[in-house]
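Lab meeting prep.
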Amino acid sequence: MVLSPQPNLMSDLRAPAANLAVLGLIIFCGAFHQKLVQASALLGATVFSAFAVGRTISFVLDGWPSENTLAAFAIEILLAVLCLWVVGRNAKSAASA
């Protein structure tokens, strides 16, 4: 991809990238702070599932992407599944406590 450095385009790319960076930081913090585990796992499941759904829609509407994009898709699915696993594991341990 080649992007021209137009201010509007760069702003429209950087704003969601900053949003994703902050969400990623919150998700990451859940790995180190017990109080944040459930919320960060739910957030991670939501973020990575949304990416996977968006890419799936793009595959259907726009055609098959490059191998790099398919690799990102696979990683996003893996991360969404891992986050869902953490959510389920925490729900079981909360129910038994």
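Slide two material, second protein:
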Amino acid sequence: MMGMLENMSDMVTNSGMMNDGIIATGFLNDCKVGIRNYAVAISETANQELRDVLRRQLDDAIEMHAKVFEYMESKGLYNAKDFQQQIKIDMRNLETATNIMQ
């Protein structure tokens, strides 16, 4: 899976098709993964000091996720409030991804 993502990333970068939407979507997804990982790490450590550090990092990750989401929403890249509009955005992203893969 990782190799496929790296290949797609190379194709996007080399084709000149890298744009704010692609970057922001990747960053938003990375924030979500980080949030999940911090939550799991917090639940699996017995050391209170380490839990406190991880909790602060979790808070930072949640804050970063909110900032990226707000950016995407303000640029029309993500619409959580209007399902029909989000479908249009998703279809546009699918078309871009399809063009990149060809």
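Talking points for slide two:
Residues 24 and 62 are 15 Å apart (CA to CA).
The chain has a mean pLDDT of 83.
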